[in-house]
Amino acid sequence: xxxxxxxxxxxxxxxxxxxxxxxxxxxxxxxxTRVEFARRLTLTGIKTIxxxxxxxxxxxxxxxxxxxxxxxxxxxxxPKKINFPVLVPNEHGMQDAIEAGARxxxxxxxxxxxxxxxxxxxxxxxxFERFKPVLNLAKKNKIRVRGYLSTAFYCPYEGKMSPxxxxxxxxxxxxxxxxxxxxxxxxxxxxxxxxxxxxKGLKKExxxxxxxxxxxxxxxxxxxxILRSFELGVRTFDSSLGGLGGCPYAPGAQGNVxxxxxxxxxxxxxxxxxxxxxxxxxxxxxMTSKMDKVLATRVGKAGLPKS
Amino acid sequence: xxxxxxxxxxxxxxxxxxxxxxxxxxxxxxxxTRVEFARRLTLTGIKTIxxxxxxxxxxxxxxxxxxxxxxxxxxxxxPKKINFPVLVPNEHGMQDAIEAGARxxxxxxxxxxxxxxxxxxxxxxxxFERFKPVLNLAKKNKIRVRGYLSTAFYCPYEGKMSPxxxxxxxxxxxxxxxxxxxxxxxxxxxxxxxxxxxxKGLKKExxxxxxxxxxxxxxxxxxxxILRSFELGVRTFDSSLGGLGGCPYAPGAQGNVxxxxxxxxxxxxxxxxxxxxxxxxxxxxxMTSKMDKVLATRVGKAGLPKS
Lengths: 307, 307
Known about the structure:
CATH topology of chain A: TIM Barrel
Structural class of chain A: alpha/beta
CATH architecture of chain A: Alpha-Beta Barrel
Oligomer: homodimer
Largest interface: A-B, 48 and 48 residues
Shape of chain A: globular
CATH superfamily of chain A: Aldolase class I
Number of helices of chain A: 12
């Protein structure tokens, strides 16, 4: 339902607010609110919503009870019509995800050794070892697996990354069985020509159809980077309602690019996302009341212009 | 000193914070602070700084005493080395600008009749009548004239504008004697393909070298629009330190795109602006203390990544 092609004019939005967004926010939302958040998002027409992470609640308290969140969502919605991926770090998380009824999971590693050590306490090589049993279980249970590749452009510890790393690791993730790789500008530091450097190599090796781009707007370049990625054939983009999710490496700065802003740009360009932007802005306003802060979305604040 | 060519890799930044920025801020800055703001901006390497508007202080109190601001700045700096344009609405303002020693002025009109009526209380045709004596005085005194064209994409009253209007009026402004036209997305509502629609026609008629783009970031698309403009050959961009300047049509939303964010993107793309970004961020921090608010700049908040 989410397959992309570099030729068509349809954009696939992967809403990561309830997972990547919330896990980087100070404010904790309970299970009820997170289920309601997902429910409201479905009303906008979004077809893929990442709803949780099956990780240690000691390490990521915001994602506690993700199993219950997913179970409750799957009681309401048909996962054949709307896709609710969850993040799994290892075999144990994968078993929980299967028990909860997950139809898609996401695994994650980084282009930077130092980042992986700091983030998941293992080397890149070890992270791939952890993936093997996850992929085996996925195959057995017919669960789709998406791969996240962090720090594809910049690392907070190693600085600017070589595009070769993202290309090499994307190929490995696909070979392992991922159907798509999401290339992350974790620091929100990339600029359009740097995006081209990574994407041109990636397209040659794996084609644009298996690539998603995951931009953070920490330095304001996310929409420009998305535009450049679009120009190079990418059609799948991760984004977070209200720009939920800060940047742990620049306190007070923005993290994920706002879904409202991404959808606004693409609609203005005559492209289709299948999303009702006005409804999305209403979810953004609802979420503002839940988060007790002004969300990092420009369109959410400014609304739509007179057409 | 600011001529652009679509072939070179040099970007011209026109800093409009002390004028277009401040005139849309609630907080009033006195003459001393505005002169100091311009002085600090010069230290970053910016070569064009719009420092005031010779308009009615009843209508635009933030720009009161612009004459004194310009006079004091011109006592410190050589206008042959750094360009300090001021806005003039009519012959009277032009006479004041000449007395103050201005070497460049800017005139302004809009693509939308309704906007012009609301903004400067005259029709587009009447605005051109007002320009004639200004241009005559400019010629006599060897003063460069820049033309601003507002609401080139969207108007708060008329909605989406036809690209034809921007093309027709740009040609008229150049014919009148302007050396450059700054095409404004006053509402911050344009998206990249809309930018292409205007720019492709403009390039054909007048060439990219006489076009500057003036984007507001109200809906987050400014950097994407700047990227698209750059791809189409434009090399001159207006921006405002710290994103100073709100949007009168969407209270609480952002106006001008932040200079720090524009410079960050271009530097990341391997282009030259002649601006020291770290020094610019320092001016941004100083300005934060003067404005008593968090400025609308992403790079100013996040700083530079490890390189």
